[in-house]
Design goal:
With 386 residues, the protein is an alpha/beta fold. It is 41% helix and 17% strand. Helix 14 (256-263) links the parallel strand 6 and strand 7 (267-270). The chain starts with a helix and ends with a strand. The structure holds S-adenosylmethionine (SAM).
Length: 386
């Protein structure tokens, strides 16, 4: 496909998404109807779509409209590319720019320029102070790809060597001793020997740093209370913890046994109705549902789907999850709370509210990771009865 045809495809997919189809589904639907498109074309089109979703508001402003065509015009302008070089009308490229499209693009407000929903901007400012603009700017860019080295089985250096043999260049990242940043050929990871043998997993570097912050000692009994797909459960197990994974939606944990087997570790699965049978734990960890504001580079749709009502509902769920943790710990056990959000209301404010109602608890570990550190934005606090 020509570069123009790829832009035309991205326009169709964006229009489908903007009419209500989830982005991944819109991409798959398009690929099914256009089987001639090769993997390089699909990857390039996907990049266009996700770039546009990260920069939806500024692109709509610069393109002068909220449909796929205007957004792609604005996206190209935002990247400093003259859209008329791709909107040629030739072959399968989009039709040439109209007179109006050539001059469209208004002056952008601060919220639009930073691609932040206007209602959320005060929350960012309150949470991040003078780093607010830089963090929001970072969230407008593609996320780096990180691997977690399964140090139970291989050193970071050995993993790097093995990956190089498969054409994947990496470098150690300072956020976590297990983290490698992928510099070349990220699309080869799933077929690489290191991945297939369970020696590396795809995991954001700050997500790894969160697990590192929990100071796991081998043999510790840990309950991952909101395990989801098991990214952090696997990292906990690799540090030698005896991990039980739990989630209110057990279906989300369906891949954990296969992932654990590949990694050469054991993770027990506890559905909510069976959790009591697993007794109490040295550490009960909740990677709580959140706005995802720290990882909007990876899942940009979340930014535009968030509303004040949804955020308020999430805050209630987070406090409810926190309040369920103490019952699962041993008398001298700890609880830990994490989010992939940079918003104070979801982080320290929640922990303070919990302590107001459970005054026997105090914070013993607390870290905030900013997208400016290289990985996603994350927060983690570990609390213990004092
Ligand atoms: C941020 S995700 C977890 C991601 C996972 N820890 C990982 O690293 O891959 C949050 C998870 O919390 C679960 N959840 C939501 N409410 C819950 C509750 N009340 N109790 C337990 N899990 C809950 C969701 O189903 C979701 O899978």
């Amino acid at each position: 496909m020509t570069p123009g045809a790829r832009v035309a495809a991205a326009i169709d997919i964006l229009d489908d998404h903007l009419s209500g189809t989830p982005a991944e589904q819109a991409l798959t639907g398009w690929a099914r109807k256009h089987r001639f498109a090769g993997s390089r074309d699909r990857a390039a089109i996907r990049d266009h779509v996700f770039d546009a979703l990260r920069r939806l508001q500024s692109s709509a402003g610069l393109g002068g409209g909220k449909n796929g065509r205007a957004i792609m015009i604005g996206l190209l302008r935002g990247f400093g590319i003259d859209p008329s070089t791709l909107f040629t009308g030739e072959g399968h490229a989009p039709a040439v720019l109209t007179d109006w499209e050539q001059v469209s693009g208004d002056g952008l407000s601060r919220a639009s320029r930073l691609d932040c929903p206007a209602w959320l901007l005060p929350q960012f400012d309150e949470s991040l102070g003078d780093q607010s603009d830089d963090v929001l700017e970072a969230l407008r860019h593609r996320a780096p790809v990180f691997l977690r080295v399964n140090i139970a089985r291989i050193s970071r250096q050995q993993a790097q060597k093995l990956l190089t043999e498969d054409g994947i260049d990496t470098r150690p990242h300072s956020l976590a001793p297990t983290a490698l940043e992928v510099l070349k050929n990220p699309r080869k990871i799933n077929g690489s020997r290191a991945f297939l043998d369970g020696l590396v997993e795809l995991q954001d570097a700050a997500s790894q740093a969160v697990v590192e912050a929990l100071q796991i000692a081998p043999g510790m009994r840990v309950l991952d209370y909101c395990a989801g797909g098991g990214g952090k459960a696997l990292a906990l197990a690799a540090l030698g913890a005896e991990v039980v994974a739990h989630d209110i939606s057990p279906a989300r944990m369906k891949d954990i046994p296969t992932r654990a087997e590949r990694a050469g570790c054991k993770i027990q699965i506890a559905t909510p109705d069976r959790l009591a049978r697993f007794g109490t734990f040295d550490l009960v960890f909740a990677d709580a549902p959140c706005s995802g504001s720290g990882s909007w580079r990876r899942a940009p749709q979340g930014k535009w789907l968030m509303t004040p009502e949804r955020l308020s509902d999430l805050l209630d769920v987070q406090q409810s999850v926190l309040s369920q943790l103490p019952a699962r710990t041993t008398a001298d056990g700890a609880i830990a709370y994490a989010t992939c959000s940079v918003l104070r209301v979801e982080n320290r404010v929640q922990v303070d509210r919990f302590i107001e109602n459970h005054s026997e608890y105090g914070i013993e570990v607390e870290h905030s990771f900013s997208p400016l550190d290289g990985g996603d934005g994350f927060y983690v606090a570990q609390l213990r009865r004092m």
